[in-house]
Amino acid sequence: MNRLKRLGLELWLPVLALVAWWFASANSTSIFFPPLRDIAAATWQLWPFDHVWSDLVPSLVNLAYGYALAVVIGVLGGLLLGSMPRLLDAIEPELEFLRAVPAVALLPVAVIALGLGDGMRVSMIAFGAVWPVLINTVSAVSGIDSVQRDVQQAFALSLPTRVLRVRLGAAVPQIVAGARVSLSIAVVLIVVSEMQGADRGIGFFLLTTQRSFALTDMWTGMVVLGLLGCLLNLAFRRVERLLLRHYPPARSGPTPVEAR
Amino acid sequence: MNTLGTTEPALVEVRGVGHDYPQAESVHRVLDGVEVTANAGEVVCIVGPSGVGKTTLLRIIGGLQRPTRGTVSIGGQVLEGPSAAVGLVFQDYSRSLFPWLSVLDNVTLPLRGKHSRAERADRGRTALREVGLLDAEAKRPWELSGGMQQRAAIARALAYEPAVLLMDEPFASVDAQTRAGLEDLTLRVRDDLGQTVLLITHDIDEAVYLGDRVVVLHGSPASVIDEIAIPLGREREQIATRSTPEFAELRARVHRLIQNGGAPMSCSSPVGEPIDA
Asked: Of A153, A173, A156, A172, which Cα lies nearest the Cα of A164?
């Protein structure tokens, strides 16, 4: 019953919006805004499973590689920089500069430097999505509680123990919060990166259908992207709950506030 | 790293320790010429009003801070940093335990990289049994009550098998019932394992109840103004010990020392309220 209530609370607005869209567009003759009925029918016709295999899966593979790279580099780099305040001070301006560059703006450079292959796309995603994880990890590691620092020192904890058990442990809630932001950045970048020189992928699909005025088909691409976003978010929440199950409830919020 | 066994006599010697904190144009002298010793198996309580520099002294004995002057030696070795012969119990258990690790992992964390997995688990469980927390080994600290968390912190120090148990206001954040239980636990651990206990507190009652000796810090900069032997025997009992006339007398003596800083008595001071809360 409670579950049902929650589900209702979460779904009333999307359902209402879909119903409103359905009826408002039902008699539409505009080629730009086809009836939702047509979009739904086209989605069903195009995606399972022709375009799922030809476009969605390649996009997801790139997304997985790029996102995994971003998280791994972000966490490792964050542990390193957070543990070495001197090094952080020395390269912080450069980091801020790189972070301020929108990853999308690097697309032309990336195409020239890395070519038009999947390597370029994976690199773009990794570059754009690494920052939230990196910065959250740095802030969590360098902001470790002073008593916890004393404990590390007083019991002469070994370096691997300090890094893996204490610093990484302390940083997990903030890493997860950063990884959530990174995931949405990664989805944006996969679409954008496929709009240049790709021969498959969901971004490629959107661009080619738009250019050939197959606008109903183009809309199906957006439906699929929307669904993908929802599913990724659901999957992320599962992983988050798993990772944070050992943390006190107060600290498992999306943005843990330091006590001091 | 040199690990002293629990059976080896450990002598803590604090010799002429002074500490200054730099300020804008001068230095703030916190401690000067502090002398404290603790013999093997002894419980020594260091009392003083809050702000007197007790925590600074504890950090120096724990090797977390270098003294500006003087030396601390443990088992004849002058401290250069944290010693494997010292197990620390911090005041704030909610911050000193790692919430993401189970109780057993917290207790065995200091043994990682130094002992095999089997030995770590063995020592961890022995320590947890000693503090009566064996059933909670798989729980997270934040799932336990405050008293249980502090027992876990004591178990962590015990699993380290230190010769000296160094405790910083260890029972200041728990309620009175729990506090009495933890005090008796500390005495029992000393009897079972023969540890030397160095306990810092602002609570005069607690110092007299637990201590074989009470060391009184006073002044600015603070130094040891007196040391009082507590001849109440090794067996202490919360109600019986605290209601003896000797206890009341010792308690009053410590109280006057803290209030008057060892100066000659000008008038009799009221006895019975703690001087700081």
From this structure: A172
* CB contact A246 to B (< 8 Å): yes
In this structure, how many other beta carbons lie within 10 angstroms of the beta carbon of residue A161? 19
**Amino acid at residue number B27:** V
What's the helix, strand, coil split of chain B in %, to 5? 35, 25, 40
A 168-197 near B (Cβ less than 8 A): 169-170, 172
CB contact under 8 A, B96 and A147: yes
CB pairs under 8 A between A and B: 74
Taking CA B44 as the corner, what is the angle to CA A151 and CA B235, rounded to the nearest 5 degrees?
Answer: 115
Alpha helices in chain B (DSSP H): 54-61, 93-96, 103-108, 117-130, 146-159, 176-193, 204-210, 238-242, 245-260
Domain range for A137: 35-252
Complex ipTM: 0.83
pLDDT at A27 over 80: yes
Is A166 part of any domain? yes
User: In angstroms, rounded to a whole number, what is the distance separating the alpha carbons of residues B143 and B48?
Assistant: 34
Q: Mapping DSSP to helix (H, G, I), strand (E, B) and coil, where does residue B74 land?
A: strand
Task: Answer whether B206's CB lies under 8 Å from B91's CB.
Answer: no
What is the residue-wise DSSP string for A32-57? Answer: SS--HHHHHHHHHHHIIIIIIIIIIH
Q: Is the pLDDT of residue B5 over 60?
A: no
* Chain A residues with beta carbon closer than 8 angstroms to that of B90: 147, 150-151
pTM of the model: 0.83
Average pLDDT, chain A: 88
Total count of domains within chain A: 1
Task: Say which of A153, A161, A248 has its CB closest to residue B142.
Answer: A248
Inter-residue contact B48 to B203 (CB < 8 Å): no
Residue in A with minimal Cα distance to B101: A246
CATH of the domain at A158: 1.10.3720.10
Which 81-110 residues of chain A touch chain B by CB within 8 A?
none
* Residue B219 DSSP label: T
Tell me, what amino acid is at B203?
D
Task: Write out the residue limits of the CATH 3.40.50.300 domain(s) in chain B.
Answer: 8-85+164-238
**What dotted CATH number matches B8-85+164-238?**
3.40.50.300
Task: Say whether A150 and B100 touch across the interface (CB within 8 A).
Answer: no
